[in-house]
Design a protein that fits this description.
The structure is a homodimer. Chain A has about 350 residues and is an alpha/beta fold. The first copy, chain A, folds into three domains: about 55 residues, lambda repressor-like DNA-binding domains (434 Repressor (Amino-terminal Domain), Orthogonal Bundle), CATH 1.10.260; about 130 residues, Rossmann fold (3-Layer(aba) Sandwich); about 140 residues, Response regulator (Rossmann fold), CATH 3.40.50.2300. Chain A is built from twelve helices and twelve strands. In chain A, the strands form two sheets. In chain A, strands 2-1-3-4-5-11 form a six-stranded parallel sheet, with helices on both faces. In chain A, strands 7-6-8-9-10-12 form a six-stranded mixed sheet, with helices on both faces. In chain A, helix 1 packs across helix 2 and helix 2 packs across helix 3. The N and C termini of chain A lie far apart (about 75 Å). Strand 2 of chain A pairs antiparallel with strand 2 of chain B. Chain A binds a DNA duplex (30 and 30 nucleotides) through helix 2 and helix 4. Chains A, B: Pfam families: LacI (PF00356), Peripla_BP_3 (PF13377).
DNA sequence: TGGACTTGTCAAAGCGGTTTGGAAAGAGAA
DNA sequence: TTCTCTTTCCAAACCGCTTTGACAAGTCCA
């Protein structure tokens, strides 16, 4: 059923029907009621593509997920983020188009999106230091929201991020307060902005107490279980092992736990661990009331929701000043931290 | 730049340009070359929506992800699956539109997709026993491929699935061969087809050796770390603990591992464990050469790729017989299995 | 040389909406 | 009564592409 047929059914012109459905003021209230009701009864819905073509609004948001060519790690955080965003989209009647793109060819995708106006805006995932995508999107004039941000505080674009510096500063303080001095940092790749900030938060907390950072206790790389395990194992078996770990993801923390178990060490007693927890739906940090790991916590699903809201806001009201949300992480105390062994 | 302008630039009619770009045979090879080259140089790309509208093909595939209303667990498998499918889509020039839908309101989404023809086909994720989506899609005449399948072998629809029965039969046999008799099964929710099949494979292997299944050693539920831990812990502390676990996901297996460690048991010695491994990119089963867990293995990313291929095949060649792929799982021996303690 | 076939190109009619620029009808004012 | 506004609706022009049917030019064969 198309508009013309449906309008014929009602004895109205397509124009009037379109306006009634679109909420325009030029139709009588009674007419509108008649139209919307008939639409429901006959199951009429305007064709998305036709509407998009005619109006210029795509009613769609693009998510571009970069994936490394070599060993494609899809950021697991992504599933939760997108499900948060998806809630907003469906309630606002936007579609979500997803592109999986191998690193580097993102340009092409963005350009195409902008050119064919196939989306009204995009979400930028996993921003990297010196990320080319952001200037590109600005140049293209395509509204966007970044999940995360870039170094240098005040670039004028929308983003939602957590206060990584503060979170890791607080986490480090916690460990320092417990008497730990040899603290290892297992971080994400340092070409990611969040990893740099976490490192900075860690470093400033350490130097704030006059404790030096041992470069041997720093790891930066893919935040996989295997890497967490490998790094922890190496450090713990080294000549001067850490008494505590500060870890950037729960997955990695699980690897650390494996390493400590293999070496007969007990978490929270022999070795302490604080991790960041994205509150992924399928990888809970233990039961609600008794967190497994002490953790800095912020829901990535909530971030997804917020990003979506901001983007739609920016799309519907062009010219709005950039919205920059920086969220505080909660610090939850779990079973993985305790006083330093020889404190 | 639109088609008319671009065609004007070349001194050709829009028709010819469209045909040249579309690969139709009615244009001279030289003309086609001239057109494609100019398109590249000027960065001309046909507007997707306009093309879709005119041709009736949406050039888009829909993925509908159900998410439970209560505590929305987004299947973590999904990220990898979709990245596999995404590869195919981008190489075949299809878009991927994603809908996150709360359980139950899927009908509406599918109907809308069919009605507005906003996608050419859909992928069905996480089929449940008696899933209403499949008859609905058949009724709507929308091409679809199911990742997984339904009970009752030969329903005529496309699917890609692993041979769950065989995989878990083999895994059980392995444990039985090692002398285990008290084997626990930690499974997914039994309203999922794959969980039933795995249970059947397990049960038939057990009864094939005359070993009875203890209902106290059966768990079925969300395949989370927490559930794996809880179930294992409960069973291991019970009066008649299992000597081996057969587990439906790596995440859950990690929970089991935690439980065994807490109780001072060593995996592969005091307790054995075989898990299914979806080869998720961010949750590797240890290093390549030394798997952590003994596992039945099948890449969900590969499944995503294959589903996408099949769907596109069905879309471009309507009337094709249903394609039903059933994949054999590999059984990889890791460090988590060993002879039964008192064997 | 002329008719039948190809081949390469084009004009124009959609696809299913939105939106602009009226027009008819009714209300109020002069 | 006539004129000017509103209000409510409509006809028609797009949006940018695909595709059908027609046509000119070229090829082949009789």
């Amino acid at each position: 059923m198309n508009l013309k047929e449906f309008a014929g059914l009602l004895g109205l012109s397509p124009t009037t029907v379109s306006r009634a459905l679109g909420g325009y003021p030029e139709v009588r209230e009674e007419t509108r009621r008649r139209v919307t009701e008939a639409a429901k009864r006959h199951g009429y819905r305007p064709n998305r593509r036709a509407a998009a073509l005619a109006s210029g609004r795509a009613m769609a948001i693009g998510h571009v997920i970069p994936t490394a060519l070599n060993q494609e790690v899809v950021n697991p955080v992504f599933a939760d983020f997108i499900s948060g965003a998806g809630e907003v989209y469906s309630s606002e009647n936007y579609d979500l188009t997803l592109s999986i793109v191998t690193d580097g060819s993102e340009d092409r995708v963005y350009r195409q999106m902008a050119q064919t106006r196939s989306v009204d805006g995009v979400i930028v995932h996993g921003p990297r230091i010196g990320d080319q995508r952001i200037p590109l999107l600005q140049e293209l004039g395509l509204p966007f929201v970044v999940h995360g941000r870039l170094p240098g505080e005040h670039a004028p674009f929308n983003f939602v991020d957590i206060d990584n510096i503060r979170a890791f500063h607080k986490a480090t303080d916690l460990l320092l307060d417990l008497g730990h001095r040899r603290i290892a940092l297992l971080n994400g790749n340092l070409d990611m902005d969040f990893a740099c900030r976490r490192r900075d938060g860690f470093a400033s907390a350490m130097s704030g107490r006059g404790v030096s950072v041992d470069p041997d206790l720093l790891f930066a790389g893919d935040m996989s279980e295997t890497n967490g395990h490998g790094a922890a194992r190496r450090m713990l078996e080294g000549p001067n092992p850490p008494t505590a770990f500060l870890v950037s993801s729960l997955t990695m923390a699980i690897g650390v736990r494996r390493a400590t178990h293999e070496l007969g060490l007990r978490l929270g007693q022999d070795v302490s661990l604080v991790t960041h927890d994205d509150v992924l739906s399928y990888l809970a940090n233990g039961p609600q009331d008794a967190p497994l790991f002490t953790a800095t916590r912020s829901s990535v699903r909530a971030a997804g929701r917020r990003c979506a809201e901001i983007l739609i806001e920016q799309i519907t009201r062009p010219g709005l000043a950039p919205i920059q949300d920086i969220w505080e992480c909660e610090l939850v105390i779990g079973a993985s931290t305790g006083p330093a062994p020889n404190a």
